[in-house]
Task: structure prediction
Amino acid sequence: MKTRIYTLLIFMLVALQVEAQDKQTPPKGGEPKDFTLPEKEVVNFDNGLKLVLVPYGSIPKATINITLKTGNINEGPEEVWLADLLTDLMEEGTNANYSVKDSLSGMGGNLNIGVGAHTTSLSTSVLAEFAPEAVKILADVLVDPKLPASELDRLKKDMNRNLTVSLSRPGTQARKEFFAELYPNHAYGRQYPTTEQVNSYDLQDVKSFYDKNFGAARTTVYVVGKFNAEEVKSAVEQKLSSWRKGQKAEYPVAEPVTNATVKIIDRPGAPQSTILYGLPVIDPAHEDYIALDVMNSLLGGSFGSRITSNIREDKGYTYSPGSALVSNYKTGIWYENADVTTEFTGASIAEINKEINRLQNEAPSQEELQGIKNYESGIYVLQNSTPGGIIGQLNFLDVHNLPESFLVDQVKNINAVTPQEIQQMAKKYIQPEKMTLIVVGDKEKIKDQVNETMKTPAEIKK
Result:
């Protein structure tokens, strides 16, 4: 009986060892797939408007997106979020005698209007046979928006409510201060208005912003999916070919500063500290951009990155750290962001610097880099496998004046990056002595930690 038990135990032990060995040798991943930009047709109208038609996919739906090259970047110092208020009012529909909401709903779609730093967009996704009519509806909202004065006070109250809630959060407080430090004389640095600013806006301010920044010369109509191309072209011709040309797109170029500011925003009793730590870098048009993007993913921009592995997995200082490469017009920003336990605020900053210095002094292994490149390639292709993704990438090219080769060759260029280039990017662009540090937390508990780690006294802001 004992012999049988021993034999069984030995068998189980061997089986477990074999299983463990199998788990340690997963199959090799597939080769990264190239991104293929779908065939498209571009129609240019005399008033400067552009129509881009992209037949795509097999699902009988069409995504229509009208994008204008204007957004928060065109707001003046006393116009912060005025572009947002305009788009909120535009969602109320058109002066044409029908309900936009009901009409699009009957086509399987709805009205989406949004504004970002560089663009404003109106979009919907409808069943294929309704694409031409949906184009006409979006065009009506664009060219002849209702902008009802009766809704202005309600929308301003909603905006102020959202603003108050947002600014009560440490992440928003850090972001507001961080971008104001790096872009003190540009719209990029004016992330949030005051409630007084919002209250001061009237309907004439909204209309003036529309008149100044909206026009055919700044507008591209994207239609991606299944649709009748001739009928869509006819709809655009009918509704938008005679729209006023307006001014050509003009983005004011920012001049970021690198003052190596260290600032603490006091949040008494906070159990965590929010860290935002970074500096200006290059924009997507620069020849180093792809290599810098891959370096970001390896350093802090992916779940398997070095900073994340260090302060999350190894040290347990934080749950969800991450770095980002922000693409602005003719400028960019790299930053690391983390919410860390208060008692480890200084240690977290020290470990971030440690990982930056380690990458500057020693190139990553080919194996580590290949894992990051596979991740970057896969994410890139996946992101561009939908109509919305295709529109987003084409618009990215337009905003940054990039050739189509930027998209088509990106997987190839990602996989051409070498370990030595990654090290060089860290040396060239990620320089802690030039970085701005904003920490939101309990100053009584973190001030000495931050000062000791940064070797410079932090400015305290309440």
In short: The first helix runs from residue 2 to 24. The chain has a mean pLDDT of 93. The chain has 18 helices and twelve strands.
